[in-house]
UniProtKB/TrEMBL annotation:
Superkingdom, taxonomy of origin: Eukaryota
Protein name: NADP-dependent oxidoreductase domain-containing protein
The organism of origin for this protein: Pseudocercospora eumusae
Keyword Heme included in the entry's annotation: no
Alphabetically ordered keywords of this record: Oxidoreductase
InterPro entries: AKR, AKR_Detox_Biosynth, NAD(P)_OxRdtase_dom_sf, NADP_OxRdtase_dom
Pfam families noted in UniProt: Aldo_ket_red
Domain NADP-dependent oxidoreductase, residue spans: 26-336
CDD domains: AKR_AKR7A1-5 (cd19075)
Length: 348
């Protein structure tokens, strides 16, 4: 079995030969489940498997990968280094949380941001990344202190784009106004949860992002796996380590979606998807591409995770397909009307 110390020779894709993406939205590979065997939430630790996933991503004309310092307690970034992502022409974005990561505790104070980013760069084997994100709000540190420090890191050349994740719309506005007033690097990207079953960001967050010219990257477009055909009211067995495994840290998805309104919503979507010869997964991804509030010309992207190249291939192909039949679009609207009152806040 391969280990984290092994390397995989990448399939070199020259820019002039890179295929043109066929999807309406950019696609970013999420890597939360990649890393060292035994690390928290890691399910893919064979570099050959993850290397094949990168090959598949690039075959479809995409080249962005999303990671974080907290993923696998740092082993996810190390895993990507073993895949020689720079040689592949991959653009990596990483995130720094304001929480404890294994034995280390991070914040968004000035004296923590640079060391935290430096640890990510060392693990990734690089002097810079494409995007640096604040993973979650740090409500114990003034935004001005954080943003000034981020600006200094940007001016020093450690990253090109600045991103934020899981902030409320009013916090985004405050951050953008502070940056504009002080001439600091303004956020380029906001990353947040968004799917056909979690649309509460549409009311206030999307207008805010559009006003300030911030692109939106959605994660969990399949609602943690609920928008597949794997789970139902009577499901009693769960794949170990999955988002709905009650014994796993990611089992918090059960609190979000394992309820009667969600199953009632799926009762509306699934039969119509089947009627049109598609899986619930295909229907949900095509909804994201063509019927959500996301827009390719605004720089928006969808972040999708995977456990194999085959799974990634299927999801990328679904994202390349056309709009849904009108009755299925209306089914998604009806489904949302059933679950929106129970939807968890989009911000941390």
């Amino acid at each position: 079995m391969a280990t984290i110390t092994e390397t995989v020779v990448p399939t070199k894709v020259e820019v002039s030969e890179a295929p043109q993406a066929k999807s309406t939205l950019k696609v970013v590979l999420g890597t939360m489940n990649l890393g060292r065997e035994g690390a928290p939430l890691v399910r893919v630790h064979d570099p050959a498997v993850s290397g094949a996933m990168l090959d598949t991503l690039q075959k479809h004309g995409h080249c962005e990968v999303d990671t974080a310092r907290i993923y696998g307690f740092g082993s996810t970034e190390e895993h990507l280094a073993q895949l020689k992502w720079q040689e592949r022409g991959i653009a990596v974005g990483t995130k720094l949380t304001a929480k404890k990561v294994g034995p280390k505790e991070y914040s968004h104070k000035k004296d923590s941001l640079k060391p935290g980013l430096s640890e990510s760069l060392k693990a990734l084997g690089s002097e810079k990344v494409d995007t640096f994100y604040l993973h979650t709000p740090d409500h114990n540190t003034p935004y001005a202190e954080t943003l000034e420090a981020v600006n200094e890191l940007h001016e020093a050349g450690y990253f090109k784009k600045f991103g934020i994740c899981n902030y409320a719309a009013w916090e985004v506005a405050q951050i953008c106004e502070l940056c504009n007033a002080n001439g600091w690097k303004k956020p380029d990207i906001y990353q947040g949860a968004y799917s056909a079953l979690q649309r509460n960001i549409e009311t206030e967050l999307f207008p805010c992002l559009r006003y300030y010219g911030v692109a939106f990257y959605s994660f969990s477009p399949l609602a943690g796996g609920m928008l597949t055909d794997r789970y139902g009211r009577d499901t009693s067995e769960y794949e170990g380590g999955s988002r709905f495994d009650p014994n796993n840290a990611r089992g918090f998805y059960r609190k979000l979606y394992w309820n009667e309104p969600t199953f009632a919503a799926l009762d509306i979507i699934r039969p119509l998807a089947q009627k049109h010869g598609m899986t619930t997964t295909e229907a949900a991804l095509r909804w994201t591409s063509h019927h959500s509030a996301m827009k390719g010309d605004k720089g928006d992207a969808v972040v999708i995770g995977s456990s194999s190249a085959e799974q990634l291939e299927a999801n990328l192909s679904n994202l390349e397909k056309g709009p849904l039949p009108e009755d299925l679009v209306q089914a998604f609207e009806e489904a949302w009307s059933l679950v929106k009152v129970n939807t968890a806040p989009y911000f941390a």
